[in-house]
Amino acid sequence: MLSAKKKRRFPHFIDHKKWVYIRLIGARSTQMSISGKWKQLGPFGIGGLLFSSVCVAPTAHAQTLGGYGHDFLAATVNFGTLWEPAVSAGWSNFVSKPAGFGTGAESYGYHYGVALADNVSGKFMRDFVFAAASHQPHAYVPLGSGTFPNRIWHALKFTVIVSSQASDPKFNWSGIPASLASAGLSNVYQPAQQRTVLATFERAGTNTAGYIFGNIWLEFTKKPMENHNRIRAMVKSR
After folding, report:
1. Is the pTM of this model over 0.85?
2. Mean pLDDT value of segment 152-177
3. Which regions of the chain does DSSP assign to beta strands (E)?
């Protein structure tokens, strides 16, 4: 429950029927309720609107534009966004050596900048743009059990099909289409030699391969949603 003081400060987030977790960057997750319908904006209305757009994680049944923004921030604001491009830049600079980047330390810096931009733009396309446009929150849910081939197939299938019910398959717009869009956007900051159609589709293929590997990694390392202690506690409390 919100204290009387917090209710006065955030009058637009009060609704005792819906509970969500709000995660502020660098802070602990706090359980609080939000209103499904906005009341008339008061003195803190604009601040509350901005707060909800980036910090509030809506329920799965009521995803909003702010919720997709939260998903993008959650996927981006982490250490992986920094070290993954560093590894990719090292591979490109010392192994694959694509044309147009030069040599030496300056080349590595160019590679790192491009890889960092690709990393963020890819998450932006998957978790915000295509997820919001298709009204499908981008979240891989691992099978968590079963045979090894079945779990691999579950991860591979998510690249193309996303659905909570086998009888109602839906195309995953955050999969291959998002990879193509991210590869196209990358032409804005790639060297001239990497802006060809062939190079763009090669990047799209690399993006998709990385996406598949990420799903397989989550399949065998991430706890299934229904087994999460916090989720079980929330379900029992309803």
Report:
1. no
2. 84
3. 19-23, 29-33
